[in-house]
Amino acid sequence: MLVCLGMKELLEENNYPLAAEYLSRAIERGGEEPTTYLYLGQALSRSGRDSEALSVFERGVKAYSYDPPLRAGVAMEYFRLHEKQRALEVMRQQLELFPEDALMRGMMKKVEDSGP
After folding, report:
1. Which of 51, 76, 78, 116 would bridge 87 by S-S if both were Cys, CB 3.0 to 4.6 A apart?
2. How far, in Å, CA of 105 to CA of 43, rounded?
3. Residue 27 domain-assigned?
């Protein structure tokens, strides 16, 4: 139920702090699906809490190491935190695992083209 409430606040209401609260509680209570980490990370990121979002995405990747959206979240948070080389490293790792990942390839090109 908490995940559903969090998703509604995130995707329909754009109430990112409340979404983060619901989704955090869902994880605390054992709702540790990849999408819960993904949506919590997105809610935190959209709330301007990029360091916390990075931590959530990293915890998600630790639990679900082959989840492309979670890895993309890690990469984008590193980029937002001005750690371009770390972002590129995560992207390269993803492409080693999933060379057909066109989304990650596109993200990587944009990051590479973004300048210093």
Report:
1. 78
2. 24
3. no
Neighbours of 22 (CB within 10 A): 24
**pTM of the predicted protein model:** 0.92
Ranges in the chain, pLDDT < 50: none
Residue 102: CATH number of its domain? 1.25.40.10
Query: What confidence score (pLDDT) does residue 116 get?
Result: 76
